[in-house]
Design brief:
The chain is an all-alpha fold. Helix content is 84%, strand content 0%. The chain has ten helices and no strands. α3 runs antiparallel to α6. The longest helix has 38 residues.
Length: 231
Amino acid sequence: TFMVGLLGSNELSAVTAANTPIFLVQVIIFGLLSGQSILVSQYWGKGDQGAINRCTGVALYFGLAISSLVALTLLLFPRGVMTLVTDNALLVELGAPYLRIVGVSYVFNAASSVYVGMQRSTEKPVMGMAIFAVSMLLNTLLNYILIFGKLGFPRLGVTGAALATVFSQTIGFLLILVLFFRYGRKQDLRLKWSLHMEKAGRLQYLGILLPILVCELVWSLGENAYAAIYG
C-alpha cells in the first residue's frame, strides 16, 4: 500500500478498490482453515492420522475450487468485477490489470494455507511461520523492484505489485510442495488418502465450516459496505 501510494492517489484508490473482492476470497479461505483446524486438532488428539489426511483433502478441494473459480472470473472479467466496486472509469482502467493477475496468487495461497493449517493444528507451527515469512519478505522486495523498475527491470507500477504477489505466493507453494514430498511420508501423509472422504466426514466438516463461513462473510460484507459508503 505504501509503495503503490507513492505512485499517486489514483493508483492507490484503484488497488484499494480491486482488493475488495480479493478480501472476500481471503475471508472464505480463512473460514475453510477455521473448520479444518477444529477437526484436525480433534483427530490429532485421538491419534487418527487417516482422518487428518481426509479432512485436509476436503479443505484442499474446497479451497482450490473456490480460489480457481475466482481466479478464472478475475482473469476473464476484471473490468466487470471492478465496476461492481467503483463507477470511476479511471480506477477501473488502472485496477483491471491488477485484478487479472493477482487472482492467480490465491490458488497457490489456498493450497499453501491448507497444508500449513494442518501442520499448525498438529503442533508444528514453525514451518508455516518460516515459509510465510520468506514469502512476505520476497513479496516486499519484488514490489519495490517491479513497481519502481529497479535492478534493470521495467517500471510496471500497479501491475508490478500484482506480479510480485503471484511470484512470491508461487515460491511459497513450491517450498511447501518440496517439504511435503520430502517429509510427508514420515508424518504418514498420503495425497491419495486426502482425496477420499466418506459422506459422513464431508457432512461433519461442512457442519462446522458453514456457520464460521457465514459469520465471516457477513462481517466482511459489512466492512466492505462501510468502506464503500465512507469512500
